[in-house]
TrEMBL record:
Pathway: Carbohydrate biosynthesis; Calvin cycle
Chief location: cytoplasm
Chain sites annotated for binding Mg(2+) 1: E79, D98, L100
Cofactor annotation comment: Binds 2 magnesium ions per subunit.
GO cellular component terms, semicolon-separated: cytoplasm
Family in the record: Belongs to the FBPase class 1 family.
Binding residues annotated for substrate, in chain numbering: D101, G102, S103, S104, Y207, K237
Pfam families referenced in this protein's UniProt entry, alphabetically: FBPase, FBPase_C
Top-level taxon of the source organism: Archaea
Name used for this protein in its record: Fructose-1,6-bisphosphatase class 1
Domain Fructose-1-6-bisphosphatase class 1 C-terminal stretches: 184-293
Cellular compartments annotated: Cytoplasm
Subunit record text: Homotetramer.
Length: 294
Protein backbone atom coordinates (compact mmCIF):
# COMPACT_ATOMS: atom_id res chain seq x y z
CA UNK A 1 0.00 0.00 0.00
CA UNK A 2 1.11 3.56 -0.67
CA UNK A 3 2.85 5.29 2.23
CA UNK A 4 2.76 8.96 3.16
CA UNK A 5 6.36 9.34 1.99
CA UNK A 6 5.48 7.78 -1.38
CA UNK A 7 2.45 10.05 -1.66
CA UNK A 8 4.61 13.13 -1.10
CA UNK A 9 7.08 11.97 -3.75
CA UNK A 10 4.33 11.15 -6.25
CA UNK A 11 2.75 14.57 -5.62
CA UNK A 12 6.08 16.24 -6.44
CA UNK A 13 6.16 18.02 -3.10
CA UNK A 14 9.28 20.20 -2.81
CA UNK A 15 11.93 18.48 -0.72
CA UNK A 16 11.79 20.85 2.27
CA UNK A 17 7.99 20.83 2.30
CA UNK A 18 7.96 17.03 2.35
CA UNK A 19 10.53 16.95 5.16
CA UNK A 20 8.45 19.34 7.27
CA UNK A 21 5.28 17.28 6.79
CA UNK A 22 7.05 14.05 7.73
CA UNK A 23 8.74 15.71 10.72
CA UNK A 24 5.41 16.84 12.16
CA UNK A 25 3.69 13.57 11.24
CA UNK A 26 6.34 11.68 13.20
CA UNK A 27 5.27 13.50 16.39
CA UNK A 28 1.93 11.67 16.49
CA UNK A 29 3.42 8.72 18.38
CA UNK A 30 5.13 10.78 21.11
CA UNK A 31 2.04 13.01 21.48
CA UNK A 32 -0.25 10.02 21.85
CA UNK A 33 2.12 8.39 24.36
CA UNK A 34 2.08 11.55 26.49
CA UNK A 35 -1.70 11.48 27.05
CA UNK A 36 -1.53 9.18 30.07
CA UNK A 37 0.81 11.38 32.09
CA UNK A 38 -0.68 14.75 31.02
CA UNK A 39 -4.35 14.56 31.97
CA UNK A 40 -4.88 17.79 33.87
CA UNK A 41 -4.88 21.53 33.33
CA UNK A 42 -1.53 23.31 33.33
CA UNK A 43 -2.59 26.24 35.52
CA UNK A 44 -1.91 28.70 32.68
CA UNK A 45 -3.95 30.39 29.97
CA UNK A 46 -3.25 30.96 26.28
CA UNK A 47 -3.39 34.36 24.60
CA UNK A 48 -7.14 33.96 24.09
CA UNK A 49 -7.65 33.64 27.85
CA UNK A 50 -8.51 29.94 27.72
CA UNK A 51 -7.22 27.49 30.31
CA UNK A 52 -4.41 25.38 28.89
CA UNK A 53 -4.44 21.63 29.39
CA UNK A 54 -1.08 20.03 30.18
CA UNK A 55 -1.21 18.37 26.75
CA UNK A 56 -1.72 21.75 25.04
CA UNK A 57 1.60 23.00 26.36
CA UNK A 58 3.33 19.62 25.96
CA UNK A 59 2.36 19.20 22.30
CA UNK A 60 3.14 22.83 21.53
CA UNK A 61 6.62 22.58 23.07
CA UNK A 62 7.31 19.25 21.35
CA UNK A 63 6.37 20.33 17.82
CA UNK A 64 7.93 23.79 18.15
CA UNK A 65 11.19 22.26 19.37
CA UNK A 66 11.56 19.79 16.51
CA UNK A 67 10.75 22.48 13.95
CA UNK A 68 13.26 24.85 15.51
CA UNK A 69 16.00 22.22 15.41
CA UNK A 70 15.25 21.28 11.80
CA UNK A 71 16.31 24.61 10.31
CA UNK A 72 13.57 24.11 7.70
CA UNK A 73 11.03 26.57 9.09
CA UNK A 74 10.88 30.34 8.84
CA UNK A 75 8.24 30.97 11.53
CA UNK A 76 5.58 29.22 13.59
CA UNK A 77 2.23 30.61 14.69
CA UNK A 78 0.66 28.43 17.37
CA UNK A 79 -2.66 28.76 19.16
CA UNK A 80 -0.73 28.25 22.40
CA UNK A 81 1.76 31.08 21.79
CA UNK A 82 0.90 34.78 22.07
CA UNK A 83 3.26 35.83 19.29
CA UNK A 84 4.66 34.35 16.10
CA UNK A 85 7.84 32.38 16.84
CA UNK A 86 10.59 33.38 14.40
CA UNK A 87 13.01 30.63 13.41
CA UNK A 88 15.32 30.41 10.37
CA UNK A 89 15.14 33.59 8.26
CA UNK A 90 16.55 31.75 5.25
CA UNK A 91 13.85 29.03 5.33
CA UNK A 92 11.02 29.08 2.80
CA UNK A 93 8.04 27.78 4.76
CA UNK A 94 6.05 28.94 7.80
CA UNK A 95 3.72 26.86 9.97
CA UNK A 96 0.38 27.60 11.59
CA UNK A 97 -0.93 25.06 14.07
CA UNK A 98 -3.27 24.07 16.83
CA UNK A 99 -0.97 21.57 18.57
CA UNK A 100 -3.81 19.75 20.31
CA UNK A 101 -7.37 20.59 19.36
CA UNK A 102 -10.03 19.35 21.81
CA UNK A 103 -7.55 18.75 24.63
CA UNK A 104 -10.23 18.94 27.34
CA UNK A 105 -11.56 15.61 25.98
CA UNK A 106 -8.39 13.64 26.76
CA UNK A 107 -9.52 12.98 30.31
CA UNK A 108 -12.70 11.31 29.02
CA UNK A 109 -10.85 9.46 26.22
CA UNK A 110 -12.55 11.08 23.24
CA UNK A 111 -10.86 11.90 19.93
CA UNK A 112 -8.56 14.92 19.69
CA UNK A 113 -6.13 16.09 17.03
CA UNK A 114 -3.32 18.29 15.75
CA UNK A 115 -4.14 20.83 13.00
CA UNK A 116 -1.38 22.16 10.70
CA UNK A 117 -1.15 24.58 7.79
CA UNK A 118 1.98 25.39 5.78
CA UNK A 119 2.58 28.62 3.86
CA UNK A 120 5.39 29.75 1.63
CA UNK A 121 6.56 32.99 3.25
CA UNK A 122 4.88 34.57 6.26
CA UNK A 123 1.97 33.18 8.29
CA UNK A 124 -0.54 36.02 7.96
CA UNK A 125 -1.90 35.04 4.55
CA UNK A 126 -5.31 34.08 3.27
CA UNK A 127 -6.13 30.39 3.57
CA UNK A 128 -6.32 30.04 -0.20
CA UNK A 129 -2.54 30.57 -0.26
CA UNK A 130 -1.75 27.45 1.79
CA UNK A 131 0.77 25.09 0.21
CA UNK A 132 -0.37 22.20 2.39
CA UNK A 133 -2.78 21.47 5.22
CA UNK A 134 -3.28 18.37 7.32
CA UNK A 135 -4.47 17.10 10.65
CA UNK A 136 -3.59 14.12 12.77
CA UNK A 137 -6.58 12.58 14.54
CA UNK A 138 -5.96 10.51 17.67
CA UNK A 139 -8.91 8.12 17.93
CA UNK A 140 -9.19 4.32 17.74
CA UNK A 141 -6.68 4.78 14.91
CA UNK A 142 -4.16 7.54 14.42
CA UNK A 143 -4.97 9.03 11.03
CA UNK A 144 -3.49 11.85 8.97
CA UNK A 145 -5.72 13.73 6.52
CA UNK A 146 -3.79 15.85 4.04
CA UNK A 147 -3.98 18.03 0.95
CA UNK A 148 -1.19 19.60 -1.08
CA UNK A 149 -3.73 21.45 -3.20
CA UNK A 150 -4.54 18.45 -5.41
CA UNK A 151 -7.31 16.70 -3.51
CA UNK A 152 -7.52 15.04 -0.10
CA UNK A 153 -6.04 11.75 1.08
CA UNK A 154 -6.29 9.93 4.42
CA UNK A 155 -3.49 7.83 5.91
CA UNK A 156 -3.40 5.61 9.01
CA UNK A 157 -0.41 4.97 11.27
CA UNK A 158 0.29 1.23 11.43
CA UNK A 159 2.02 -0.81 14.15
CA UNK A 160 5.41 -0.28 12.49
CA UNK A 161 5.04 3.50 12.70
CA UNK A 162 4.40 3.96 8.96
CA UNK A 163 1.52 5.97 7.52
CA UNK A 164 -0.33 3.86 4.94
CA UNK A 165 -3.03 5.10 2.56
CA UNK A 166 -6.64 4.50 3.62
CA UNK A 167 -8.47 6.68 1.08
CA UNK A 168 -7.56 9.04 -1.74
CA UNK A 169 -9.54 11.62 -3.70
CA UNK A 170 -11.83 12.01 -0.69
CA UNK A 171 -15.03 13.98 -1.40
CA UNK A 172 -17.52 15.40 1.11
CA UNK A 173 -20.99 14.07 0.29
CA UNK A 174 -24.19 16.09 0.73
CA UNK A 175 -25.01 14.61 4.13
CA UNK A 176 -27.26 15.45 7.06
CA UNK A 177 -24.91 15.60 10.06
CA UNK A 178 -24.87 18.95 11.85
CA UNK A 179 -23.10 20.27 14.90
CA UNK A 180 -23.10 23.77 16.32
CA UNK A 181 -21.09 25.39 19.07
CA UNK A 182 -22.28 28.29 21.17
CA UNK A 183 -25.09 28.32 23.71
CA UNK A 184 -28.52 28.14 22.06
CA UNK A 185 -29.92 31.19 23.96
CA UNK A 186 -27.02 33.22 22.51
CA UNK A 187 -27.55 32.17 18.87
CA UNK A 188 -28.49 34.89 16.38
CA UNK A 189 -31.80 34.81 14.52
CA UNK A 190 -29.98 33.87 11.31
CA UNK A 191 -28.30 30.87 12.92
CA UNK A 192 -31.51 29.74 14.64
CA UNK A 193 -33.32 29.83 11.31
CA UNK A 194 -30.50 27.86 9.69
CA UNK A 195 -30.36 25.13 12.33
CA UNK A 196 -34.16 24.82 12.44
CA UNK A 197 -34.24 24.39 8.67
CA UNK A 198 -31.59 21.65 8.79
CA UNK A 199 -33.34 19.83 11.65
CA UNK A 200 -36.69 20.00 9.84
CA UNK A 201 -35.00 18.36 6.85
CA UNK A 202 -33.81 15.44 9.00
CA UNK A 203 -30.45 16.73 10.20
CA UNK A 204 -28.70 14.61 12.83
CA UNK A 205 -26.88 16.46 15.60
CA UNK A 206 -23.22 15.51 16.16
CA UNK A 207 -21.02 17.73 18.35
CA UNK A 208 -18.19 16.53 20.59
CA UNK A 209 -16.28 19.71 21.40
CA UNK A 210 -13.30 18.69 19.25
CA UNK A 211 -13.36 20.69 16.00
CA UNK A 212 -11.02 18.32 14.20
CA UNK A 213 -12.94 15.19 15.25
CA UNK A 214 -16.30 16.72 14.36
CA UNK A 215 -15.00 17.85 10.98
CA UNK A 216 -13.68 14.36 10.24
CA UNK A 217 -17.22 13.03 10.59
CA UNK A 218 -18.43 15.69 8.17
CA UNK A 219 -15.64 14.78 5.73
CA UNK A 220 -16.76 11.15 5.80
CA UNK A 221 -20.56 11.46 5.95
CA UNK A 222 -21.41 15.01 4.86
CA UNK A 223 -23.22 17.81 6.64
CA UNK A 224 -22.00 20.93 8.42
CA UNK A 225 -19.95 21.94 11.44
CA UNK A 226 -20.69 25.43 12.72
CA UNK A 227 -19.39 27.76 15.38
CA UNK A 228 -21.44 30.84 14.62
CA UNK A 229 -21.43 34.47 15.57
CA UNK A 230 -23.41 34.84 18.80
CA UNK A 231 -25.17 37.67 20.56
CA UNK A 232 -22.16 37.94 22.89
CA UNK A 233 -19.42 37.42 20.31
CA UNK A 234 -19.90 38.61 16.74
CA UNK A 235 -16.55 37.00 15.88
CA UNK A 236 -17.47 33.55 17.14
CA UNK A 237 -14.86 31.50 18.98
CA UNK A 238 -12.54 29.67 16.58
CA UNK A 239 -9.28 31.12 15.26
CA UNK A 240 -8.96 31.85 11.56
CA UNK A 241 -5.21 31.25 11.32
CA UNK A 242 -4.67 28.02 13.28
CA UNK A 243 -7.98 26.18 12.98
CA UNK A 244 -10.33 27.46 10.29
CA UNK A 245 -7.89 28.04 7.44
CA UNK A 246 -6.29 24.55 7.44
CA UNK A 247 -9.62 22.78 7.94
CA UNK A 248 -11.34 25.03 5.41
CA UNK A 249 -8.60 24.36 2.86
CA UNK A 250 -9.14 20.61 3.28
CA UNK A 251 -12.92 21.01 2.96
CA UNK A 252 -12.50 22.99 -0.25
CA UNK A 253 -10.09 20.43 -1.66
CA UNK A 254 -12.65 17.70 -0.88
CA UNK A 255 -15.36 19.47 -2.88
CA UNK A 256 -16.96 21.11 0.14
CA UNK A 257 -16.86 24.70 1.31
CA UNK A 258 -16.15 26.97 4.28
CA UNK A 259 -17.77 30.28 5.15
CA UNK A 260 -18.27 32.85 7.88
CA UNK A 261 -21.94 32.86 6.94
CA UNK A 262 -21.47 35.52 4.28
CA UNK A 263 -18.39 34.57 2.24
CA UNK A 264 -15.50 32.10 2.11
CA UNK A 265 -13.11 32.42 5.03
CA UNK A 266 -10.32 31.27 2.70
CA UNK A 267 -10.39 34.72 1.06
CA UNK A 268 -9.86 36.63 4.32
CA UNK A 269 -6.35 38.01 4.89
CA UNK A 270 -5.82 37.97 8.69
CA UNK A 271 -4.62 41.16 10.34
CA UNK A 272 -3.65 39.52 13.63
CA UNK A 273 -2.47 36.07 14.54
CA UNK A 274 -5.28 35.20 16.98
CA UNK A 275 -8.09 36.63 14.84
CA UNK A 276 -11.44 34.92 15.32
CA UNK A 277 -14.28 34.43 12.86
CA UNK A 278 -17.61 32.58 12.70
CA UNK A 279 -17.35 29.36 10.71
CA UNK A 280 -19.57 27.00 8.74
CA UNK A 281 -17.68 24.15 7.08
CA UNK A 282 -18.81 21.02 5.28
CA UNK A 283 -20.94 20.00 2.31
CA UNK A 284 -21.19 22.63 -0.40
CA UNK A 285 -25.00 22.63 -0.31
CA UNK A 286 -25.04 23.19 3.44
CA UNK A 287 -22.74 26.20 3.11
CA UNK A 288 -24.78 27.68 0.26
CA UNK A 289 -27.84 27.42 2.52
CA UNK A 290 -26.39 29.62 5.30
CA UNK A 291 -25.06 32.18 2.83
CA UNK A 292 -28.52 32.46 1.26
CA UNK A 293 -30.17 33.47 4.56
CA UNK A 294 -30.35 37.26 4.97
Amino acid sequence: MKTLQEYLSASHAPEDLGKIIMLIADQAGPIRSAFISNQNYAGSTNSSGEDQAEMDTWADARITSVLQKSGLVRAVASEEQEDIVQMSSSAKYSIVMDPLDGSSLIKVNLSVGTIVGIYEGDVLQAGNQLRAAFYMLYGPMTTLTISLGNGVSIFALNAEGTYILLKENVKIPEGTLCGSGGLRPEWTEKHIRYMNEIECEGGKNRYSGSFVADFHQILEYGGVYAYPATKKSASGKLRLVFEINPIGFLADQAGGAVSNGECSTLDIVPTKVHQRTPVYVGSKGMIAKIEAIR
